[in-house]
């Protein structure tokens, strides 16, 4: 039997790292950590530097063995990549990085069992023009997550679990959209192409400061997380329609966690924030619910107008 394997994106710190640490203790398989790489002064986008466990190379204690870096792309602009393992160095192109990761997993493990999409950004600096915030936030939080799923989903094995980190902000953002848009975002027949078009419309109307007039909420982060939540629901419907064997996709909120994302103002520790994502990642085989839901505090949360 092939060794099981999990991948957690954006997991070199914060909630993502706590998810890795918890999976190391609870998941019967290998866990790969991917690092968020700083690509500019203001934007922190997800990279695909993977880390695997090797007790002979003690770098970071995560509770089960130690981490040995395998560089699948350059770690940061202007810095040479670490290359302490068998991995190959990728370009800065996100798509190529995800493809390399997919090929590595397929060759090494024959597939993927758990995918946790944690990587994301938020802007806490109002001096950055809103249009720049919109472009970067939707690209990183929504479009890059969707693209990673499209590349990695074909190697998901039966009984795989996919967890897309969203936020309670998606519910808050939904409430601040127009009635017409709320109806669209809660439509159980909405397709992925239609969702992508809605997020693109937000980006385009924001460029000319017409996004509020078009019915969207005023926060790029809120809107990006609406996209992640609805994306997860659509993904489950698509997977079910393809007859997949017990592949489960859920979106979840980790809660208000004290991390860089919240300027360390959150009330939860990173380990407390990891509890719900890990719950979703370790849902037992052949579970009927939750599937394609938005989860908060290990419970299905409302997603309605």
TrEMBL record:
It comes from the Eukaryota. Keywords: NADP, Oxidoreductase. It holds the Pfam family adh_short. It comes from Lymnaea stagnalis (Great pond snail). This is Carbonyl reductase. The keyword Signal does not apply. One of its GO terms (molecular function) is oxidoreductase activity. InterPro entries: NAD(P)-bd_dom_sf (IPR036291), SDR_fam (IPR002347). Belongs to the short-chain dehydrogenases/reductases (SDR) family.
